[in-house]
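Reply to dn_fold:

You asked what the input looked like. This is it:
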Amino acid sequence: MKGPTLTVGIEEEYQIIDPVTRDLSPGFDSLVQSAFATEADVKAELHQCQVEIGTKPCESIAELRQELVKLRGLVIRAAGEQGLTIASAGTHPFSNWMNMEMTPKERYLGVKAELQDLAHRLLIFGTHVHVGIEDQEFRIDCLNAARYILPHILCLSTSSPFWFGRNTGLHSYRSIIFKNFPRTGVPRILNGWSDYADLVDTLTKTRSIPNGSKIWWDVRPHHLYPTLEFRVCDVNTRVDEAVCIAAMLQAVVAKMWKLRRDNMTFRVYASDLIEENKWRAVRYGLGGKLIDFGKKTELEAPVLIRELIEWFLDDVLDELGTRKEVEYAFRIMEEGSSAQRQLATYARTGDLRAVVDQLIRETAEGVCEPTLGPPLDTFERPVKAVSAARLTPGSNPSARGQAIP
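and this is what came back:
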């Protein structure tokens, strides 16, 4: 049996920020005019305040890091030429989605026409990791088994605790917003490639979708490329976090192949059980507990993530040469996810603009100098968050966008 190539690629969606107000800015059309943006081959997204990059398929995680550092640097420089800056997080802390301009391209206007306000509200930013699997049947076998680790990976990547000027009480509010789209979430167990192909064929023939690209599961076979695409993560704030997540997912695929080669497999669990763990990841991130379904017990999320690395993935890390990158997860668990760091900054400063500044700095960390605005102490008052627990039915804390009383 010939094993998968295990090539790796990442797509990341970034926020375009006005460095003075710290609010989202509809700056894609101006940013794309920069030579830096052309070199990075940036792509538009649903809103004009978003920009997407995608690495080429990389043969190794070391190559992936080089690509990602280069592309982030180009986008940050392109934004800087237009008086803008870039931040990488699953949601913006205080921007109002109702004030954001949508991208006037046929593809996105079609999404808006079909999904109406759900599309307009989709002001969220994610990471997609592709791992090369050429064999169609193994692609599905791996999808079925890898569903189990999606909540573990999400815990490490959570970066969206704020929404619309509110402390949502969740660590991945992006996941909640995206859940409103059809054909999302943890996929069901698939009975081979023919089962998946029949699903796509049925949905396309009934004009439900144009092709498999509109199946937005947390992990899916890509509709064009021979890859398994992991889509569960909030966009990672630091480059090191993104590289760690990609290395872990590559290692998961490598381990699933090793089991298959040795005529073994990983137990496949029902979607509703995995969704239970995903909810815990969304709500509490690294600060909560996940369920070990084999033992039918709950444990602290970092305990199960450490077990995933040290017990399940350990024997493939040296073969892949990615032990250092995967074990960066221990640092994330020690220092906190992006969501935890954002919440700590807000607790310390009481100003959501300070959270944005932190995101800008961390996005550029290890890449280039960040583009920051004037010091916050030059403004009259901080932008404060409204606690979700204090909201009353019908209240709207940010109808004017940035200004939050």
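The longest strand covers residues 8-17.
Hope that clears it up.
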